[in-house]
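Re: [help] complex structure
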Amino acid sequence: MFVTSAYAQETAPAAAEGDTHAGTAVPAAEHEAFPPFDAKTFPSQILWLVITFGLFYLFLKRVVMPRLGGIIDVRNDRISQDLDHAARLKGEADAAVAAYEQELAEAKANANKIGQQASDAAKADAEGTRKKLEAELEKKLGEAEASIASIKAKAMKEVGTIAEDTTSAIVEALVGGKADKSEIAAAVKSASR
Amino acid sequence: MAAADKVDPIHQFQIHPIIPLHIGGYDVSFTNSSLFMVVTIVLASAFLYWSTASRALIPGRLQSVSEMAYEFVGNMLRDAAGKQGMQFFPLVFSLFMFVLVANLIGLFPYFFTVTSHIIVTFTLAILVIGTVVVYGFAKHGLGFLKLFVPHGVPGLLLPLVVAIEVISFVSRPVSLSVRLFANMLAGHITLKVFSGFVVSLGALGAVGIAGSILPLAMAVALTALELLVAFLQAYVFAVLTCMYLNDALHPSH
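Output below.
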């Protein structure tokens, strides 16, 4: 394929191959039969392998691997960052829920307190009204009792006067003449006793 | 020559100079092997470079492939050699990518398989073992020799065990290079033989064409197998490299 005039020794076995068609006996004699074990090619192969592999190694080490490592590191950083961010957001959400619940509890407590106060005030008010009414009723009762007592006393006094009048009339009718008023009164008093 | 090429399964491994070069009596011509080494590194570099050019936070398909290769080798090395081993990450990643891409390129018809030459795989293996030895002695001094002296071995057996350990250590570059080389070589020869059957039988007329269906099916199946082998051998090469590097980091068993 790449045979040149510089490699005349290559063309000889190649021509022999063409002649014999199988190409085993003649090249084996002239040429190192098996190319991988042909020591003549070793220096060239070693040199070019060292050159190419050396360049490849340097290129990978200097350019490709830092880049690939960088890509993967950046991705890992990004993932852990995102996870951190998510965790922080979750923490914030939890804190918000806790704050909300606390406020709800406080509001409930306040509402209870206000309700209690209103109920207490209403009770106290009702109590006060009741007491006032009771006191008024008590007073009215007392007044009524006093008025009854005075009416009774007056009536009783009038009873005495009627008795005295009746006595003086009886005395006048029986005795004729007028009896002394004070005497009659004393007599009525002693009789009614 | 053309007819001979088709049936000769060894022809694909021949090395032809493209730009003849001789330095100090050595033939260091730029050959088809060198060309495909260049193709390998250019393709691998270009893919890794362009696929990651956008540095997307959410990777596209190509960037995913590059990232997968990177993390695959990274995890392999971390599992085998621990966090300290990560200093060898560029070496292991380069080896893995180089061997993988060279193997895959070799699967294309008419393309040269760089890793089907023992000298190439052996040079890579020597690079690995050389790194292990140099780093091992630099890090642990003579303590690195504890690698050959396992704990809890009775004194009588110790010389024998040490001898075995030394032999196993010395055979590492050989086994590492021969495994990759032999796999690629055998695979490509088999593939070529079956493909050659197809062509030879096809030349025999109607019966031959009917008869060539079986080797054609085999060639297709073998191509799939070779694709697997291409990846697997790159993986095995990288895994063993990681394990040997682990020895350099932690020589005492």
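The mean pLDDT of chain A is 82.
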